[in-house]
Amino acid sequence: MSILEIIKSRRTIYQFKSKLIPLDLVNHCLEASIWAPNHKMTEPWRFWVIGQETQAKLADIYAENRALKRTERGSDTFDEIYQKAIVKFQAIPQVILVGQVLAQEPVTIQEDYAACSCAIQNFQLAAWDTEIGVQWSTGPIIEDKRTYELLSINSSQLKLIGALYMGFPECVGKSVRQPIERVTTYLA
Ligand SMILES: Cc1cc2nc3c(=O)[nH]c(=O)nc-3n(C[C@H](O)[C@H](O)[C@H](O)COP(=O)(O)O)c2cc1C
What we know:
Bound molecules: flavin mononucleotide
Largest sheet: 4 strands, antiparallel
Distance between the termini: 35 Å
């Protein structure tokens, strides 16, 4: 595929086959990530490749947040939503967490977030090129202080900015974009 074909055909993937992702393919995607542009060479990205034990602990954080969003703790529906969410999270073949090292200057923090976003997109494109799908999530687990504790992160020094759920796609959805003429102004 050409780079434009990879960019245009890539979709966010929500359902994965159960097959695990070999570590060398994960590292291949990380290699693409770290070559993202970054102003002043801050290389602000940090990655956590989550193993089974840690994924089980994250599943609890994920499921609790999901259930609490919909109902009260202790209710029957809480347990039902919680258990379903545990199964859903545990079924993700590979979870990667992405963090941004927090700079002092607001401008640098903004630039570093842009750089980390480029790194995540590089990751997604390298994955797609090897037939692996990714969901980039900014859901509650990256805000939860238990996730910071689990990863031994000091939140004044580093901010979790994304969870990448990856696996071989079970199905690929459709997406549309407005034509470039709608979003572009051509000036003389
Ligand atoms: C910063 C950012 C945060 C996102 N957070 C989520 C998320 O929390 N949950 C989710 O399902 N998708 C999330 N997405 C994926 C978008 O929903 C997705 O890119 C969009 O629907 C377009 O679909 P496509 O990626 O297939 O083109 C996020 C994307 C970006 C760039």
